[in-house]
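ASSEMBLY PREDICTION REQUEST
Request ID: AP-0331
Submitted by: J.K., bench scientist
Number of chains: two
Total residues: 433
Priority: normal
Notes: Please return the full assembly, not individual chains.
Input sequences:
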Amino acid sequence: MTQILWNSRILCVAVILFAIGFVTLLLNRNLLKKVIGLNIMDTASYLFLTSLGYINGRTAPIIIDGVIEPERYVNPLPAGLVLTGIVVSVSVTAVMLSLTLRLYKRYHTLNIDEIYRQVHLEQEEEA
Amino acid sequence: MKQNPKKKNSFFEHLREWDEGNFDLTEAAMGELHPPRPERKHQNMDWVHHHLVRMEAREVSFFEHLYPFMAVILAAAMILFLLVVVSEMPAFGRADTPTNTSVVIKRYIGNGLEETGAVNIVAGVILDYRAFDTLGESHVLFTAAIAVFILLLQEHDEKEKQQDLRILKNDLILRKTATVLLPLIIMFGVYVILCGHLGPGGGFSGGAIIGGGLILYSMAFNTGNLGRVINMRSYRIIVLCALLSYSILKCYSFFCGANGLHTIFTTGTPGAIFSAGLILPLNTAVGLVVACTMYGFYSIFTKGRI
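STATUS: Completed
Returned structure:
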């Protein structure tokens, strides 16, 4: 089992990176750090996907000297999928950061517990 | 160089203050941007709630002490579970895995050069075989930009106030470096977009490089003349034209391809700059959308307007 894990160590790194992002998301009360944790999880999934498409001893899928044998190049499909993922991740990060900025402008804190407390107080005041 | 006497303008003045220990960069910027919250009207209500919240806090304190440990244990369990899954998966770098022996892979590499004319197979896949996917990506980016604008676009009186508060306003080193680097960055971005079908690159990466160059200019020269070139109106026109031309060109291509009609976009000589049919114009459209959106994000986050 150790030998198998060492042979696919890049996948193990992706798994550990994913867990690091998950713990960051769980443990931090700061909204900005939660966004950073989500981005680490995104990065881990990109690493996982790209390493699935890699084949030992082959080159990038850019045709050289007109050689079009599939045995010469790595899998081009995960690269395209990861490109999609990166764009979506950038968009989601931008929207999350702007929501965080709006929350900060209203409550003057990034701590999510404090924000919950103030929202609670406001609701009580209205009622 | 104009100096604002009331504010510390240069980076080094801030650095000295920070070194002496009586200035926190982030605190100062945030504090000046957002004055402290005004006092609540209902003081007695506040007092009652304060005590209520503290009472609740005493009850949940056991859970709060347990929470970090539980989170770490959960993550460790997740790592173990996923490592077992990894050990069951095909080994890294093998050619005989189900992912790498799929029929589409052979088709993409074997016939990609002939069918799309793109030397870069990935560009051929994302902008020819799966072009609707990339159109969707551009729309995701555009939608995110719209959402950010809705959330953060500010009125005129607020924006005047914020313009004085940016820290790196008159930094000499930044300005000189930007003057030297900016043409190179923009040129490199254009090269990456135009050669997307011939090598590594494409609309997304080239657009991100150009957007980075525009952000550098905006940081160094306080927007300056850039506001005349890229403002809200031109942003709308550029992005709309890029997305529309992408959709129309690709619809034409799919229509002709599905019905076996003759198209005016031929694959041309592989390796030439004007080859690979529609990939070059589509890359340009995507690059325009990405560059404008990157700069738009920066501009809206710092100044509240584009």
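REVIEWER COMMENTS: The radius of gyration of chain A is 21 Å.
SIGN-OFF: pending second reviewer
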